[in-house]
Amino acid sequence: MTQLIDGKKISAEIKEELKEKVAQLRAAGKEVTLAVIQVGNDPASTVYVGNKKKACEFIGIRSLAYELPEETTEKELLDLITELNQRADVNGILVQLPLPKHIDEDKVIKGIDPAKDVDGFHPQSVGALCIGQPGFLSCTPAGIIQLLKRSGIEIAGKQCVVIGRSNIVGKPMSLLLLRENGTVTVAHSKTQNLKEITKRADILVVAIGKPKFLTADYVKEGAVVIDVGIHRDTQNKLCGDVDFESVAPLCSAITPVPGGVGPMTIAMLMNNCVESVL
Ligand code: GUN
Q1: Same domain, yes or no, for 57 and 110?
Q2: What is the mean pLDDT of residues 201-213?
C-alpha cells in the first residue's frame, strides 16, 4: 500500500506545537512579531501573504503588514527594511517575491538582517546551511525534511535525487538531505539520462516546475516521491510536477498536490519566526 504523506495534517501538528511555544514565550514576556512586505498586487502573492497572516493569527504571532504600491522605489523598500532591521520589537522580516522588475531582488534579500531572515534566503543563511552552522533554513526544503521525519522515513544512507537547482528549493534541499546523511544527486534541465538517475532514487524530490512531468518510468518501485510543484492542469485542476495517478501505485510513500509540500512552507516560516525570538 502506498503511504500518502499528509502535509495538511503534519503542518497542523507543527502549528499546534508552535502555538503552545508562543503562549509560553508570551507568559515569559516575549512577543513574536513578523513584518510582511508586499510590493504591488500580484494576485498569487496576495493569496500567499494572506495565508501567512492567517497562520500568524492562529499561532499568536503579531504580524505587521506593509502593502506597498507597485511604483515603490528600490531605495524606499531598502529604507523600510533598514528601519525594520533596527526595530527591537520586530523579530522576522519577510519580503514577498517576486518583486516588480525595477527592484533588484538580490539587493533586497541582502538588505535583511540575517538575524531576522525568516525566509532563509540571505547569503549568510545559505552559507551557514552549507557549512553546518546555525541559521534560518529555507522553508520549503525544511518542510520536506519534516514531512519525511514525521512520516517515519529514514534519510541516512539513502540515495536521494533532487530534480531542480533553484536557490529557494533545489540547492537548499540537496544540502539538507546531505546534512541528514543522505547520498545526494542533483539533477536539472541539462542532466543527461535523467531516467537512469531518478530510477536509482530511494527518495526523489521533484521541483522542476513542469506539470505532471514525472511519470512512472522515472521511478523505482518502492521509492518515496516528494512533489514540490503546483500548477493547474488542462481541466483547471490543481496538479504537481508528478503525474500522481501513474506514479503513486509504484511508491512506498508520496505527497499529494494539494495537501503535501504546500502547507509545510508556511508551517516552517512560522517555526523560523518562533526561533527568531529564542
Ligand atoms: N514567493 C513564493 N514563495 C515565496 C517564499 O517562500 N517566500 C517569499 N518571500 N516569497 C515567495
Answers
A1: yes
A2: 98
